[in-house]
Amino acid sequence: DQQVKQNSPSLSVQEGRISILNCDYTNSMFDYFLWYKKYPAEGPTFLISISSIKDKNEDGRFTVFLNKSAKHLSLHIVPSQPGDSAVYFCAASLWGGATNKLIFGTGTLLAVQP
Amino acid sequence: KAGVTQTPRYLIKTRGQQVTLSCSPISGHRSVSWYQQTPGQGLQFLFEYFSETQRNKGNFPGRFSGRQFSNSRSEMNVSTLELGDSALYLCASSGQGSGNTIYFGEGSWLTVV
Known about the structure:
Oligomer: heterodimer
Largest sheet of chain B: 7 strands, mixed
Shape of chain B: globular
């Protein structure tokens, strides 16, 4: 049972444009969400997070939006740069739970074309 | 501030052998988690340790085990290696309590032949 889903395996965007990566979840108990960027054979790099008490969080070029009623979150990257090309994972956890266990989506490969 | 450090980075083992991987968390972090990444299954949670106690465990066979030391450093062990255990093993650390940012190490790439 895939509790966190990234339905787009890949996305191609032109440099300077907006990249929008989507993520859906099924467990309404999730209340903390994170986005990671990952290169092959390396560890994920933390990008941005959001708790369920918010619907938006910004950090530089990265903005995460959370729609709790739809159980959907998205990561916006503006403007996109070639160095952003990587696999992006969304992850969910239980803020109120005594654990830091993350449930990951399957990832979206972003290719930013110069 | 040093990040999460994992050793070794790459290793090759023979089927049936056992392997131990090591993780040093970010200074001050008491929560250490382990994940397995494979092409077919993605990133999957193995287990989490906090203050030397396992407080959560994923759906992996008993061949996968771990421990945490008093200095928060952690090791994971895989016994009786199978070809399917070939994967990138990732360690993550976090501060006390839930809802903290979780930082990952570079991973240990295990190949079983």
